[in-house]
Write a structure and sequence with these properties.
By secondary structure, the chain is α/β, with parallel strands linked by helices. It is built from ten helices and 13 strands. The protein has helices at 57-72, 87-93, 108-117, 119-122, 138-144, 169-178, 196-207, 244-254, 263-268, 274-283; strands spanning 2-5, 15-18, 20-26, 31-37, 41-46, 49-53, 77-82, 100-105, 131-135, 149-155, 179-188, 212-218, 228-234. The strands form three sheets. A seven-stranded mixed beta sheet has the order 9-8-7-10-11-13-12, with helices on both faces. A four-stranded antiparallel beta sheet has the order 3-4-5-6, with helices on one face. The protein has a two-stranded antiparallel sheet with strand order 1-2.
Amino acid sequence: MNRYNETLYNAWGQSFAVDKVLFEEHTEHQHLIIFKNALYGRVMALDGVIQTTEADEFVYHESLTHVPILAHGNAKKVLIIGGGDGGILREVCRHTSVESITMVEIDNAVVEMSKEYLPNHSQGAFDDPRLNLVINDGARFVAETTDKFDVIISDSTDPIGPGEVLFTQDFYGSCKNCLNPGGVLVTQNGVPFMQADELVNTYRRQSSHFKDHTFYMAAIPTYVGGAMAFSWATDNEALRQVSLDELRDRFQTAHFESKYYTPELHLGAFALPAYLVKQLKDALG
Protein backbone atom coordinates (compact mmCIF):
# COMPACT_ATOMS: atom_id res chain seq x y z
CA MET A 1 0.00 0.00 0.00
CA ASN A 2 1.29 3.45 -0.90
CA ARG A 3 1.66 6.12 1.76
CA TYR A 4 1.57 9.92 1.68
CA ASN A 5 4.17 11.45 3.98
CA GLU A 6 3.48 15.02 5.06
CA THR A 7 6.51 17.34 4.94
CA LEU A 8 5.31 20.24 7.09
CA TYR A 9 7.69 19.70 10.02
CA ASN A 10 11.37 18.84 9.71
CA ALA A 11 11.78 16.90 12.94
CA TRP A 12 8.49 14.98 12.97
CA GLY A 13 5.46 14.29 10.84
CA GLN A 14 2.57 12.04 9.90
CA SER A 15 1.84 9.51 7.21
CA PHE A 16 -1.44 8.57 5.50
CA ALA A 17 -2.21 5.28 3.82
CA VAL A 18 -3.25 6.00 0.23
CA ASP A 19 -6.01 3.61 -0.76
CA LYS A 20 -6.57 5.29 -4.10
CA VAL A 21 -5.31 8.46 -5.81
CA LEU A 22 -8.31 10.34 -7.17
CA PHE A 23 -6.50 13.29 -8.70
CA GLU A 24 -2.94 14.59 -8.93
CA GLU A 25 -1.56 17.56 -10.83
CA HIS A 26 1.06 20.26 -10.73
CA THR A 27 -1.15 23.31 -11.15
CA GLU A 28 0.05 26.78 -12.10
CA HIS A 29 0.77 27.46 -8.43
CA GLN A 30 1.35 24.19 -6.54
CA HIS A 31 1.29 20.39 -6.43
CA LEU A 32 -2.26 19.19 -5.73
CA ILE A 33 -3.27 15.66 -4.79
CA ILE A 34 -6.59 14.20 -3.63
CA PHE A 35 -6.64 10.62 -2.38
CA LYS A 36 -8.79 8.20 -0.38
CA ASN A 37 -7.92 6.98 3.10
CA ALA A 38 -9.93 4.41 5.08
CA LEU A 39 -10.02 6.49 8.28
CA TYR A 40 -10.20 10.07 6.99
CA GLY A 41 -12.10 9.57 3.74
CA ARG A 42 -11.00 11.87 0.93
CA VAL A 43 -7.85 13.87 1.67
CA MET A 44 -6.41 16.90 -0.13
CA ALA A 45 -2.78 17.97 0.10
CA LEU A 46 -0.87 20.87 -1.45
CA ASP A 47 2.90 20.91 -1.81
CA GLY A 48 3.39 18.08 0.64
CA VAL A 49 1.09 19.47 3.36
CA ILE A 50 -2.30 18.00 4.28
CA GLN A 51 -4.98 20.66 3.80
CA THR A 52 -8.28 19.00 4.59
CA THR A 53 -10.01 15.65 5.06
CA GLU A 54 -13.64 14.60 4.87
CA ALA A 55 -13.62 13.13 8.38
CA ASP A 56 -12.70 16.16 10.48
CA GLU A 57 -13.05 19.22 8.22
CA PHE A 58 -16.16 20.33 10.09
CA VAL A 59 -14.15 21.25 13.20
CA TYR A 60 -11.91 23.62 11.25
CA HIS A 61 -14.55 25.14 9.03
CA GLU A 62 -17.15 25.69 11.75
CA SER A 63 -14.57 27.23 14.09
CA LEU A 64 -13.21 29.65 11.52
CA THR A 65 -16.69 30.70 10.36
CA HIS A 66 -19.25 30.72 13.15
CA VAL A 67 -17.10 32.32 15.84
CA PRO A 68 -16.60 35.63 13.97
CA ILE A 69 -20.06 35.75 12.36
CA LEU A 70 -21.98 35.05 15.57
CA ALA A 71 -19.70 37.32 17.60
CA HIS A 72 -20.37 40.12 15.13
CA GLY A 73 -24.11 39.57 15.30
CA ASN A 74 -25.04 41.53 12.18
CA ALA A 75 -22.65 40.44 9.42
CA LYS A 76 -24.09 41.25 5.99
CA LYS A 77 -20.97 41.13 3.81
CA VAL A 78 -18.36 38.38 4.21
CA LEU A 79 -15.01 38.01 2.43
CA ILE A 80 -13.33 34.61 2.23
CA ILE A 81 -9.68 34.57 1.18
CA GLY A 82 -8.56 31.14 0.00
CA GLY A 83 -10.90 28.34 0.97
CA GLY A 84 -10.95 26.75 -2.47
CA ASP A 85 -12.28 23.45 -1.12
CA GLY A 86 -15.59 25.18 -0.33
CA GLY A 87 -15.85 24.24 3.35
CA ILE A 88 -15.76 27.79 4.70
CA LEU A 89 -18.17 28.88 1.97
CA ARG A 90 -20.59 26.11 2.98
CA GLU A 91 -20.61 27.29 6.58
CA VAL A 92 -20.98 30.98 5.69
CA CYS A 93 -23.94 30.09 3.47
CA ARG A 94 -25.72 28.60 6.49
CA HIS A 95 -26.14 32.15 7.78
CA THR A 96 -29.20 33.36 5.88
CA SER A 97 -28.68 36.86 7.33
CA VAL A 98 -25.48 37.22 5.26
CA GLU A 99 -26.39 39.11 2.08
CA SER A 100 -23.22 38.82 -0.01
CA ILE A 101 -20.18 36.56 -0.01
CA THR A 102 -16.98 37.32 -1.90
CA MET A 103 -14.49 34.47 -2.17
CA VAL A 104 -10.99 35.08 -3.53
CA GLU A 105 -9.01 31.94 -4.42
CA ILE A 106 -5.66 32.09 -6.20
CA ASP A 107 -5.86 28.64 -7.80
CA ASN A 108 -8.95 27.80 -9.85
CA ALA A 109 -7.78 24.17 -10.07
CA VAL A 110 -8.35 23.79 -6.32
CA VAL A 111 -11.94 24.98 -6.72
CA GLU A 112 -12.72 22.79 -9.72
CA MET A 113 -11.09 19.66 -8.35
CA SER A 114 -12.75 20.16 -4.96
CA LYS A 115 -16.16 20.42 -6.63
CA GLU A 116 -15.52 17.10 -8.37
CA TYR A 117 -13.60 15.12 -5.77
CA LEU A 118 -14.58 16.77 -2.44
CA PRO A 119 -18.26 17.59 -3.05
CA ASN A 120 -19.17 17.03 0.60
CA HIS A 121 -17.08 20.07 1.52
CA SER A 122 -19.08 22.59 -0.47
CA GLN A 123 -22.42 20.74 -0.64
CA GLY A 124 -23.56 22.96 -3.50
CA ALA A 125 -22.42 26.23 -1.90
CA PHE A 126 -20.65 27.34 -5.09
CA ASP A 127 -24.12 27.70 -6.63
CA ASP A 128 -25.36 30.08 -3.93
CA PRO A 129 -26.57 33.30 -5.64
CA ARG A 130 -24.94 35.40 -2.91
CA LEU A 131 -21.46 34.25 -3.99
CA ASN A 132 -19.03 36.29 -6.05
CA LEU A 133 -16.10 33.96 -6.80
CA VAL A 134 -12.91 35.80 -7.77
CA ILE A 135 -9.84 33.90 -9.04
CA ASN A 136 -7.05 36.19 -7.91
CA ASP A 137 -4.29 36.63 -5.39
CA GLY A 138 -5.93 37.37 -2.03
CA ALA A 139 -3.29 39.87 -0.94
CA ARG A 140 -3.62 41.77 -4.20
CA PHE A 141 -7.41 41.77 -3.92
CA VAL A 142 -7.55 43.33 -0.44
CA ALA A 143 -4.87 45.86 -1.41
CA GLU A 144 -6.84 47.04 -4.44
CA THR A 145 -10.54 46.61 -3.68
CA THR A 146 -12.79 49.46 -2.54
CA ASP A 147 -15.39 47.05 -1.10
CA LYS A 148 -15.94 46.86 2.64
CA PHE A 149 -16.81 43.77 4.66
CA ASP A 150 -18.13 42.94 8.12
CA VAL A 151 -16.19 39.69 8.45
CA ILE A 152 -13.01 38.61 6.65
CA ILE A 153 -12.00 34.94 6.88
CA SER A 154 -8.53 34.00 5.64
CA ASP A 155 -8.48 30.25 4.99
CA SER A 156 -4.95 30.05 3.67
CA THR A 157 -2.24 27.45 3.44
CA ASP A 158 0.73 27.75 5.82
CA PRO A 159 3.12 30.70 5.32
CA ILE A 160 5.12 28.93 2.63
CA GLY A 161 4.65 29.13 -1.12
CA PRO A 162 1.52 30.96 -2.34
CA GLY A 163 0.21 31.37 1.23
CA GLU A 164 3.22 33.27 2.58
CA VAL A 165 1.97 36.71 1.54
CA LEU A 166 -1.21 36.19 3.61
CA PHE A 167 0.77 36.40 6.85
CA THR A 168 2.46 39.76 6.28
CA GLN A 169 1.95 43.09 8.01
CA ASP A 170 0.90 44.64 4.70
CA PHE A 171 -1.80 42.01 4.25
CA TYR A 172 -3.21 42.62 7.72
CA GLY A 173 -3.19 46.35 7.07
CA SER A 174 -5.05 45.90 3.80
CA CYS A 175 -7.64 43.74 5.56
CA LYS A 176 -8.08 46.45 8.17
CA ASN A 177 -8.84 48.93 5.40
CA CYS A 178 -11.43 46.51 3.94
CA LEU A 179 -13.39 46.13 7.17
CA ASN A 180 -16.51 48.08 7.99
CA PRO A 181 -16.46 49.75 11.42
CA GLY A 182 -16.79 47.03 14.04
CA GLY A 183 -15.69 44.31 11.61
CA VAL A 184 -13.41 41.39 12.38
CA LEU A 185 -10.63 39.47 10.62
CA VAL A 186 -9.92 35.82 11.45
CA THR A 187 -7.19 33.64 9.94
CA GLN A 188 -5.88 30.12 10.29
CA ASN A 189 -2.63 30.35 12.21
CA GLY A 190 -1.15 26.90 12.43
CA VAL A 191 -0.39 24.65 15.40
CA PRO A 192 1.43 26.88 17.90
CA PHE A 193 3.19 24.06 19.75
CA MET A 194 4.97 23.24 16.50
CA GLN A 195 4.83 26.66 14.81
CA ALA A 196 5.43 29.14 17.62
CA ASP A 197 7.16 31.66 15.36
CA GLU A 198 4.08 31.83 13.15
CA LEU A 199 1.89 32.73 16.13
CA VAL A 200 4.30 35.33 17.50
CA ASN A 201 4.86 36.94 14.10
CA THR A 202 1.12 37.28 13.51
CA TYR A 203 0.63 38.79 16.95
CA ARG A 204 3.34 41.38 16.36
CA ARG A 205 2.19 42.26 12.86
CA GLN A 206 -1.46 42.64 13.81
CA SER A 207 -0.63 44.77 16.86
CA SER A 208 0.08 47.82 14.70
CA HIS A 209 -3.31 47.61 13.00
CA PHE A 210 -5.90 46.36 15.49
CA LYS A 211 -6.90 47.32 19.03
CA ASP A 212 -8.01 43.81 19.94
CA HIS A 213 -5.87 41.00 18.56
CA THR A 214 -5.54 37.54 20.03
CA PHE A 215 -6.15 33.88 19.17
CA TYR A 216 -8.71 31.17 19.75
CA MET A 217 -8.18 27.44 19.39
CA ALA A 218 -9.65 24.10 18.33
CA ALA A 219 -8.26 20.57 18.31
CA ILE A 220 -8.36 19.12 14.77
CA PRO A 221 -6.90 15.59 14.36
CA THR A 222 -5.56 16.21 10.84
CA TYR A 223 -3.44 19.15 11.96
CA VAL A 224 -1.12 17.20 14.22
CA GLY A 225 0.99 18.68 16.99
CA GLY A 226 -1.68 19.97 19.35
CA ALA A 227 -4.57 22.40 19.13
CA MET A 228 -4.73 24.73 16.13
CA ALA A 229 -4.81 28.51 16.53
CA PHE A 230 -6.94 31.03 14.69
CA SER A 231 -6.01 34.69 14.83
CA TRP A 232 -8.65 37.23 15.83
CA ALA A 233 -8.23 40.91 14.93
CA THR A 234 -10.68 43.80 15.31
CA ASP A 235 -11.05 47.31 16.67
CA ASN A 236 -14.34 46.34 18.29
CA GLU A 237 -13.40 45.00 21.70
CA ALA A 238 -17.07 44.30 22.47
CA LEU A 239 -17.06 41.34 20.08
CA ARG A 240 -15.20 39.21 22.63
CA GLN A 241 -17.49 40.37 25.43
CA VAL A 242 -20.73 38.93 24.03
CA SER A 243 -22.43 36.93 26.78
CA LEU A 244 -23.20 33.23 26.62
CA ASP A 245 -26.93 33.95 26.67
CA GLU A 246 -26.60 36.33 23.74
CA LEU A 247 -24.53 33.83 21.75
CA ARG A 248 -27.16 31.17 22.45
CA ASP A 249 -29.89 33.50 21.18
CA ARG A 250 -27.92 34.34 18.03
CA PHE A 251 -27.16 30.68 17.35
CA GLN A 252 -30.79 29.72 17.81
CA THR A 253 -31.92 32.56 15.54
CA ALA A 254 -29.42 31.47 12.86
CA HIS A 255 -31.36 28.21 12.85
CA PHE A 256 -28.89 25.64 11.57
CA GLU A 257 -27.42 22.49 13.05
CA SER A 258 -23.69 22.30 13.76
CA LYS A 259 -21.44 19.30 14.23
CA TYR A 260 -18.81 21.10 16.30
CA TYR A 261 -19.72 24.71 17.13
CA THR A 262 -21.58 25.54 20.33
CA PRO A 263 -21.84 28.91 22.12
CA GLU A 264 -20.02 27.34 25.05
CA LEU A 265 -17.11 26.24 22.87
CA HIS A 266 -17.11 29.72 21.32
CA LEU A 267 -16.35 31.37 24.65
CA GLY A 268 -13.96 28.68 25.85
CA ALA A 269 -11.89 28.75 22.64
CA PHE A 270 -10.38 32.11 23.63
CA ALA A 271 -8.91 30.70 26.85
CA LEU A 272 -5.25 30.18 25.94
CA PRO A 273 -2.77 27.94 27.79
CA ALA A 274 -0.14 29.65 29.95
CA TYR A 275 2.79 28.94 27.63
CA LEU A 276 1.05 30.77 24.77
CA VAL A 277 0.04 33.68 26.97
CA LYS A 278 3.69 34.06 27.93
CA GLN A 279 4.87 33.88 24.33
CA LEU A 280 2.44 36.59 23.30
CA LYS A 281 3.37 38.79 26.26
CA ASP A 282 7.07 38.42 25.45
CA ALA A 283 6.41 39.15 21.77
CA LEU A 284 5.62 42.80 22.47
CA GLY A 285 8.27 43.20 25.14
